[in-house]
Amino acid sequence: MSKKSRQKHVPVQAPKTVSLEKKGRTLGFPLWLLPIIYCVSFVVFAWIFLIGKNADTLFFMQDRGHWNDTMVYFHECVRMPGGFLSWIGSYFTQYFYYPAYGAAMLILLWVLSFCIAWRSFHVRHELTFLLFVPLLALLCTEVQLGYWIYFLRDLDYSFYHSFGLFFALLLSINYTKNLKYGGYVQMLLVPVLFYYPLGIYALLAAALIALRLVVDNWRKDWKALPLLIAVCAIVPLLETSGTTLMRPDQPWLFGLKRFEIGSVRDYGLEAPFVWAIASSLLCPLLGWRCSNRFGVKGIAVSQLLMLIFAIGAYRIVNERNCSDTNYYAELRMLRAVDEQHWDDVLDEARTAKGNPSRLMVMYRDIALLNKGELLNRYQYNNRPAKPSVMSDSVVVRLCDTTGDFIYYNFGETCFGIRRAIERSMHYGFSYYTLRVLARCALINGEYDNVRKYLRLLEHSTFHKEWAREMRPYLEDTTLIASSPRFGLVKKLYNEGSSMVGSDDYFVEPTLIHKLSCTPTDKLEMLDMALAYCLQSRDINSFWEQAMHRHSLFPEKPFHRYFQEAMLLFHYELKTGPEDISCFNIDPQIMERYKSFINSVKEYGQSGMSMDQMGASLQPSYGDTYWWDYCILREIKSY
Amino acid sequence: MNKFQLSTINYQLTLLAMLVLGACSTHPSLPQDYKQESEKPEIYPDYTDVTIPVNIAPLNFMMDEADEVVAHIQVGDVAYNYGKGNKVLIPEDEWKELLASAKGNKMQVDVYCKQRDKWSRFKPFFIEVAPDSIDPYISYRALAPTYVGFEHLAIRQRCLENFKESDIFNTRQISKETEGVCINCHSYQNYKTDNMIFHIRISHDATMIVSNGKLKNIRLKTPEMISAAVYPSWHPTLPLIAFSTDRTVQSFHTRDITKVEVMESASDIVFYDVEKNTMQTVLADSIELELFPSWSPDGKWLYFCSARHEFEDMNNGMNETLNHYRQLQYNLYRAPFDMKTRTLGEPKLIYDARSKERSAVEQHVSCDNRYVLFAEGPHGLFHIWHPSAQIEILDQQTGQLIDTKAMNSNRAESYPSFSSTDRWILFESRRDDGNYTRDYIAYFDRNGKVHKAFLVPQQDPEFFRLSLFSWSRPEFMIEPVKVTPKMFQKQAIKEPGRVN
Q1: Are B92 and B57 in contact (CB under 8 A)?
Q2: Residue A573, in any domain of the structure
């Protein structure tokens, strides 16, 4: 590129340094350093929000994503406008398997986008901070999701729009500056050639080209704007005329994210996407009259603006960032359960701030069950948290989040498969779903089905290892029951009752009810059933299972919590057998029970509310089933 | 819009793929140094010793554990070698040449496989090329193997003579994120597409009817009917469609890998006159659950299946159905049909499945009225969920079932139908992995013998392994659907008409 030709479009280069004369002294400051300083600040800022605050979200995002290296998958993606973005987006989303790795790629992509915009539109150095507006909007899209992450329909969510913006900026570079009408040709060709692979971002590229033409020479090139409108109206219409993959009203905005569930639509979450596109349209304007130098005052004002911008950006991104601690705890617990790191699950349960969500309680109980300590659940905080909500009003239900995985962990693999498939119908098959399906099918003995899912996972980048670890179980299926990985689930599956019914979208009550009614002669399973009778507060089933256990294993003492329940159910609720002496209740427990009842009566007579009574009883009896039974009466499932 | 519509991008990609394939198409040489195996190769799909029509698309296949595969296909003097990685991909023009040479005869396939740098040669297998051609098109419903939810599903058509495939209608054309749409029960008159229907449910609820090429959408429900019209069958000559109308119940297994039970707590059969837009209930016995009407090809008989169930409490039919789902077993019946008066005669039992503790449904009659093809399972009507379900053929001349072992597997088979010439049977099966429905074709020769079934061929033989969609309810067609998806879409969003 000759200097002459460059000067044709950009008459004077932006000043690289400026001399500031102040009180007789000359201060030289290299202005070209400003964009670099902004860029480094942005990288640090983005890193803090992505990795410092949202590493768990990023990991989960890839787990709820899916990419494989087959042409079948590629064809599936590229059928849609924006299909290439979808494919490449889902490819890079995989790298969040190592959140820092994926975040570095995403930030690098943003930095590249910044550099292209800066150089392409000849933005003066001191105003380059404004080029971060679309990138900050994209950063908001990464950190704002919260529970919406379970309801994403896009497996490519994280990178789709970032790549879209990147390609739009790349295509809008003035490649045709030496050609007469080159800009017009470029503006026409870009949407025609790239609408299908890039969707709405090809239209954005055309708009950027048009705006550049207009900014460069308004009097001559104002015609670019009506031409742009015509191109953007016609190209999507023509290119999607044969497709059956969208409604006729969709081609122009296809690919723009919608957050919609039931009757609720969250425009707030959609706004950053619109902002990213709209603000990028300002880029060509930032190069306007670039040759005119800013004076000292101009620079000072621009830097003041930059400071206000930085503070505003921090406040907005921070405000957008999901702040629900239970949401993050659930993500960490899910991963720990998935990897069978039971102690990590319990640590998370112990250190959780505030009351646990039902999902956290379920994960914790899975960990306890696997450690053979299910009854220790009364040593943890069981006070119910407020229901998890998204967009302030939509209650998040277990069956829509990880109901499938929870079912699997309790050996309810058929229900697990059902929930996984139902979810996938709406939100696509993901690595997470494929692993759940593979495990459920393995427990069910549907080995060809397992092979199918493993084959798909083997075509991924990071989940192939997991799939390879599963292969030995298919080669020797006797390993399933004896392995620590599947042993308990297989046992629960084998002992589970065969029934026909439905969960009515309630995972927790379905499991508790079914587990408490487990018909079994095995001591371990009987104890589990009794434990779930305590949870379900199904007193009839409790006595039935207790009598059955006693008849089979009269010499085996009942666990402390069962003894506590017996006392409460027998003396206070007047249920069960007339004589419970056969259960050999520990005298110390009996003494403590009497003391508990006396305290309850005393507090009741003093007019305490239930909450006050619970708080007063907790120091002495918070670890007992009595406290749980009497105080935690309002536990709802979702 | 062209008749067999492809989306722009698919068309471009197909062209590109063909160009690339053409450019890379070489015939690898056969390895000289190999170990001779005594077994036939384990290929996917299993095309060993199958009988295929003379107009079928190339039977591309692959070998799982192989690093490289070379197949030597020979018919008389014509012979080609194919192999690319672990796949055998056969160009369409050469395949047609092979088929033409082997018509009424066999082609021999020698497979060489390279594993850990060592070549093996397997015992050759044969592919018999029947002189009979197959109906060139099938249509099917593509959806995830779901239970209750649905979102992205399409009724698609596929040309069996090549790999061209397109949507007839896709729910994405009309559905919104907050409003799911279900489409189902595509059906044609006499394998032609000038008269066809399918239902749209949930939003834009109506039945799309193409009558003599003209499209309309009607809400097929009258106050007398149990539900809107469900399972259809076009009369072969009259503008008349028989439907079942029923109340469906679903329940889920906790341990049984059947996973779901679909049952009817009530069902009747109605006739819909397409020209007069009138509905008439024809079978409505309160203790019979009449279902799946289908016409004999001469139009003189209406075949259907029915389960007998006397409800103890009619007001609690749903719960009773759930409690007694195993007792709902269907027998096959047929009733004479007077084409002038359009009335049905007395139904007659033609196959007593219940006496064998089985349930026979989804019957389809051959052109000569001799054979009745149906799916038989342990109970109920949705046999694709019943692993023990099989395809059976009743010979009405002898009253006996003929041997269908060759086409069945140890997994669920369902929804069988004859081609327009009776020589080919199309059905759905879960034999591949137990969960995803795939479409299989079997030859039914003039002697009434059933041959080994083969999977509908795909350009990429790995396609079905990777696809997470089921291909359900396959139907033969002798021509593609002429109404375009766009025309269906425009009609679907209009307010539907109502039955007179």
Answers
A1: yes
A2: no
Query: B108, B126 in Cβ contact below 8 A?
Result: yes
pLDDT for res A16:
47
**Average pLDDT rounded to a whole number, residues B375-401:** 96
Whether A244 and B260 lie within 8 Å, measured CB to CB: no
Alpha carbon distance A280, B205 (integer Å): 42
Query: Does ipTM come in above 0.95?
Result: no
Angstrom distance (rounded) from CA B104 to CA B445:
12
H-assigned helices in A94-199:
99-120, 132-143, 157-171, 182-198
Contacts of A412 in chain B (CB under 8 A): 254
pLDDT band at B286 (very low <50, low <70, confident <90, very high): confident
Per-residue model confidence (pLDDT) at position A82: 94
Report the share of chain A in percent with pLDDT over 70. 95
3-state secondary structure at position B302? strand
3-class DSSP state for residue B429?
strand
The DSSP secondary structure of B29-72, one letter per residue, reads: PPPSS-EEPSSPP--BS--TT-EE-TTPPP--EE-TT-SEEEEE
Q: A509 and A533: one domain?
A: yes
Distance, in Å, from the CA atom of B381 to the CA atom of B277, rounded to the nearest integer, reads 29
CA distance A269 to chain B (A): 16
Q: Report A:367-396 residues touching B (Cβ under 8 A).
A: none
Residue A485: give the domain boundaries: 329-552
Considering the domain architecture, whether residues A310 and A335 belong to the same structural domain is answered as no
Residue B118's domain comprises 8-129
Predicted pLDDT of residue B6: 41
Residue A1 has pLDDT above 50, yes or no: no
Residue A192: closest CA among B12, B15, B2, B484:
B12
A473: three-class secondary structure by DSSP: helix
Q: Pick the last residue of a domain from B108, B129, B150.
A: B129
* Strand partners of residue B108: B74, B126
pLDDT per position as a tens digit, A531-583: 999 999 999 999 999 999 999 999 999 999 999 999 999 999 999 898 898 99
Please say which residue of B129, B146, B180 terminates a domain: B129
Q: How many Å apart are CA B183 and CA A21, to the nearest integer?
A: 76
What CA–CA distance (Å, rounded) separates A448 from B235?
41
Q: How many Cβ atoms are within 10 Å of B142's Cβ, its own excluded?
A: 18
- Residue A21 is predicted with a pLDDT of 44
pLDDT at B102 over 50: yes
Q: Which chain A residues have a beta carbon less than 8 Å from that of B486?
A: 241, 248
Q: Count other Cβ atoms within 10 Å, centred on residue A178.
A: 12
Residue type, B456: V
**What CA–CA distance (Å, rounded) separates B87 from B110?**
14
Angle between helices A342-351 and A325-338 (to 10 degrees): 160
DSSP 8-state code for residue B24: H
Write the residue in A78, A263, A415 that is nearest to B9 by C-beta: A78
CA A306 to chain centre: 32
Q: Count how many domains chain B has.
A: 2
Among the candidates A495, A519, A552, a domain finishes at A552
By CA distance, what is B469's nearest residue in A? A425
- Let me know whether A65 and A185 are in one domain: yes
Which one, of A121, A425, A66, lies nearest residue A290 by Cα? A121
Tokens 């009917």 locate to B225
| pLDDT tops 60 at residue A3 | no
Residues A391 and A269 in one domain: no
Mean pLDDT of chain A: 90
Contact A90, A96 (CB under 8 A): no
pTM of the entire predicted model = 0.92
Label residue B299 left, alpha or beta by phi (over 0 means left) and psi (-120 to 50 means alpha). Answer: left
Cα B396 to the center of its chain, rounded Å: 23
A243 to B1: CB separation less than 8 angstroms, yes or no: no
Task: Indicate left, alpha or beta for B116 from its phi (over 0: left) and psi (-120 to 50: alpha).
Answer: left
